[in-house]
Amino acid sequence: MLQGALAGLAAGGVYAVLGVCLTLMSRLVRVVNFAQAAAGMFGTYIAVWLVSNQGVPIWLATVVAVGCGAAISAAIGWVVSTWLSEADTSARSAVTVAVLLLLISLSFILFGNKPQPFRPILGGPAFQVSGVVISQVAVFTVTIAAVVAAASHALLTRTAVGIKLRALSERPTTAELIGIPAKLFGIAVWAATGAVGTLVIAIVAPSQSNDAIALSMLVVPAAAAALLGAFRRLDLAVVGGLALGVLQGAAAQMTELSVARHFLPFLFIVGLLVWFQRKEVWDAAR
Amino acid sequence: MNALELRDVTVSRGAGPVIRDVSLDVRPGAITALVGPNGAGKTSLLEAVSGVVPVSGGSISVDGTPITRLSRVARSRLGLVHIEQGRAVFPSLTVVENVRLSARSSAELDDALALFPELDERRDSPAELLSGGEQQMVVLARAFAARPAFLLIDEMSLGLAPVVFTRLLPMVQRFADQGVGILLVEQFTHLALGLAREALVVASGRVTYHGDAQALRDSPDTLHAAYLGG
Amino acid sequence: MPHADTARVLRLAAPFAVAVAAIAAGYGFSVTLSGYLVYLGISVIVACIAILGLGVVTGSAGMIALCQLTFAAVGAWFVSGLNVIGAPGGFVAWLAVGGVAAGAAGILVGLPALRLRGVNLAVVTLGLAAAADVALVQVQFPGTASGTFVPRPGPFADDRSYFVFSVIVLVACATTLYVLQHSRWGSSWKSVAFSERGTAAAGTSVPRSKLTAFAVSAALGGISGGLLAGQVGLALPASFTPLQSLALYVLSIMAGAYLIDMALFGALLWVAVPELLKRWGVPQDWGFVVFGALGVQALASGTNLGAVIRTTWWNRTAGRARRQAATRTLAAPVTDVAAQPPAAAPGGAPVLEVSNLSVSFGQVQALRDVNLAVPQNAVVGLIGPNGAGKSTLVDVISGFLPRAEGTVTLDGTSMAGLSPTRRARLGLRRTFQQDRVPPGLTVDAYVRFVARRRLSHDELAGTLEFFGCPPPRTRLSTVDVGTRRIIEVVGHLLARPRVMLLDEPAAGLSHDEHIALAERLRQVPHRFGVSVLLIEHDLDLVRSVCDTITVLDFGEVLAAGPQEEVLSDPAVLKAYMGETEML
């Protein structure tokens, strides 16, 4: 049970990183990016193709993957900020649903719909604590989740760029009127979250069920994680991701929960939404 | 020529035009007042100048450069600053952060902050915790730090107590004294006309008076007639 | 007028004629087309019912739903399961049970996303789709292990006759949906998509509007899944993957599936595109890539095929309607206005009473100890400079700002704790400063929706005419914003409320229209038996309509009383800083 829970840490770290990415996107560019994990999946598959068909070294392929993930994400960002600059979150997010469909289907065509033959960058146990094994992947993902969240927080509160980003997220029109280029900053946020998301998926994919759908659907537990922080708080997104991963890991050990555990992220989301509904107020805009 | 020039500007929103064929010049150091009943289209006109909404006809230029096809950011680089209706501070940013967004150097930042000594103690509090008057001071300081060539001011008095507003109003004159051309929209007509040299009355999207501000102020009949479209 | 009556009967009968024609055409196809095409035809119908359902949530109610095929799986599950246990009633009954079960699932999924807006429903539904997919693969449909096929209903056993059966089911679903779309439910879906506040102010519950949309949408999904189980005999999880749900969502957006004909068009694409790709030897996944790309285009541009086609059609036929509407504006005097006797003298116990009302937002005190009374049959004016708290006061009285101190009573009954919807139903109605009139409805449907009671055609048309509004059959999307807001006033007046709060009804109207509106507002208490609280900035309008006036300044009542007294009060003049002198 404990072993199972700790085995869930690796997945939890991925949820946390993607949850942080979703939170940043929601705060800074008003979008819930359903293609967040799909962009990472696509970049990762390009890396796998480079490694197995072109003999490119893994580290280089990973760099290329991160670049591709960033570029795909930036391209969606360009579409959204060009045509939907004034639209509400729902309309902007709907576009990413279509992109999610497009990326998964395209990956079927280009890479087939079988799980990909990954050679892991990280593998094996990192260390043991009283007989319980912690994998390198778990250490990596948990660390990167914490680092990304802390770095984003520092960027947003301490740097001139971060303050401009916050200004843009709070009053986009006013920010543009005082000369902050909304589109450029927005696309940069898309690219950065795309890069981070791809990196973590590329590292973790070999140890997860790694077909295109499963990887793209990582956005569901990630959204659950982000929801714990109400798509606002980065620290709570990390906590949510890790908690969900650990819960799933523990549930996987119990055979009587084998079907129910698939519904954990869904139930997590439902529970949080019901909790948030307590303090519902009339939205002035609608 | 050094001026903000509007020629036959028409702005449409939703079903039809909200402002039709407005022409006016704002010269450096001059204050032009735009008055008229609510819903007349004054705010839309300012928004068209700064690029919040597109124009559907006519032209706008700054110092001879046509700007109607430029982005909001490009317009701001030409020295156009728009103070929007309703205290446009960034709520979670501190006073200093708000003002620094527009300042290019720390000297400009300090100059702007020095305008309102009453903000000194609150420099590091988030703008959302300030009172309405203090928030409007932050907005004015931010505009000052931007060193504007032309300033568009939309209903600075909205929701402010008269005593607070009378503290802020002289700032408009101060901007003008430094050579900033100002287009002023204000619901307190007489205060606006007292500051301005030139005035336009807009009713139902059309200009019903365009001329000397003092003359308009001194003849209530003209003003009344202008308001009623007579 | 027998001519108009005939026209109305024809309009009512038209959809049923189309339904009969559709069944006839379906029978025609079933006997003429090749066996393979008939089988594909069943797939088109299955998809069409699912897309019709999606159209309700995504099109009419404007939400993102990504698990339509999960609801279909619920339907298929029930049909297969009832078959395995040999439940009575046969296929048709199982299909109905599947639809009801999916509808119930839809309500359960919708509940957590009800109050919060935005993309929450998208997150919940995608989560459900992903979970259900993995779970289904693990447990499989009932009957899969034993190879128990779902038998088709008796007389419809072969493909050709099952196609006819499917056509009948589709026509039944589409007709029901058509009737629903033109009922209060349909209006509430369109209204809630455009404005939740507007919906609540019309006395309609926002959660209920959304829940009915979820339920109808999911039920159609369930019926589609049950029909599929009958088509293939053994339902497989591969028919209900999240990817297909995503594609179906994108397709329904692209096509504009809230329109029944466009749902059929979408279903044709759904089946034809992969079929053609297969014949051309192209990988079928390209189909979804194309849907994805077109979906990005449609979503980014905010248009869909159905809307484009409809708009082109209306523009061609609109010339006539526009000429008709042009003869009616508010500014044109209505002859019976002058003939009306003056309003019954106001008096008696106040209908609406507001006492010691205070509201603050953070540090800002928006309202402080406000007292106000609206007597029977009176028109009370509420004036004050911009930002004085007038709109906040309206929000508090109508229940949109529940966290206020003080009391609001209607006919002596406290309104404390009542939702805006409840207050509207009790006869406390309001209009909005912003446009909250859903452009997707006709004037007729909107006014009936807001009025919440049976209206004769003459009463409706007569009131619209009195206020210079366009005739009932006009589409709201073709009406300018100022007039839309007058139509909003008409709808609320026809609800015969006790009190009506009008929030700057004249904003957006020309000066001539201001005067004309004032003439009509003066008649309101007499004509409709309604007392009015009129919030206005235009002192001319207030002066010509209101018996008594309350002046609000910085959230406090500065003056209140008979019109002349208040307007000559020096404090009031000062509040306007000279503005009153000139008017």
Automatic annotation (TrEMBL), chain A:
Lipid bilayer topology: Multi-pass membrane protein
Main localization category: membrane
GO molecular function: transmembrane transporter activity
CDD domains: TM_PBP1_LivH_like
Alphabetized Pfam families for the sequence: BPD_transp_2
InterPro entries, per database record: ABC_transp_permease (IPR001851), BCAA_transport_permease (IPR052157)
CC terms in the record's Gene Ontology section: plasma membrane
Keywords: Amino-acid transport, Cell membrane, Membrane, Transmembrane, Transmembrane helix, Transport
Spans through the membrane: 6-24, 31-52, 58-81, 93-112, 132-156, 177-206, 212-231, 236-253, 259-276
UniProt keyword 4Fe-4S, yes or no: no
Biological process annotations from GO: amino acid transport
Subcellular location: Cell membrane
Sequence similarity: Belongs to the binding-protein-dependent transport system permease family. LivHM subfamily.
Name the record gives this protein: Branched-chain amino acid ABC transporter permease
Organism per entry: Phytoactinopolyspora halophila
Automatic annotation (TrEMBL), chain B:
Residue ranges of domain ABC transporter in the record: 4-229
Transport among keywords: yes
Protein name: ABC transporter ATP-binding protein
Xref: Gene3D superfamilies: P-loop containing nucleotide triphosphate hydrolases
InterPro entries: AAA+_ATPase, ABC_transporter-like_ATP-bd, ABC_transporter-like_CS, BCAA_Transport_ATP-bd_LivF, P-loop_NTPase
PROSITE patterns in the cross-refs: ABC_TRANSPORTER_1, ABC_TRANSPORTER_2
A Pfam family: ABC_tran
BP-aspect Gene Ontology terms: L-amino acid transport
Family: Belongs to the ABC transporter superfamily.
GO molecular function, one term: branched-chain amino acid transmembrane transporter activity
Record key words, sorted: Amino-acid transport, ATP-binding, Nucleotide-binding, Transport
Automatic annotation (TrEMBL), chain C:
Residue ranges that the Swiss-Prot or TrEMBL entry lists as coiled coil: none
Subcellular location: Cell membrane
Segments passing through the bilayer: 12-30, 36-57, 64-85, 91-114, 121-141, 161-180, 211-234, 246-271
Residue intervals of the ABC transporter domain: 352-579
An example Gene Ontology molecular-function term: branched-chain amino acid transmembrane transporter activity
Cellular component GO terms held in the UniProt record: plasma membrane
Predominant place of localization: membrane
Any Pfam family matching the protein: BPD_transp_2
Keywords noted in UniProt: ATP-binding, Cell membrane, Membrane, Nucleotide-binding, Transmembrane, Transmembrane helix, Transport
Membrane topology: Multi-pass membrane protein
PANTHER family assigned: CONSERVED COMPONENT OF ABC TRANSPORTER FOR NATURAL AMINO ACIDS-RELATED
Protein name, per record: Branched-chain amino acid ABC transporter permease
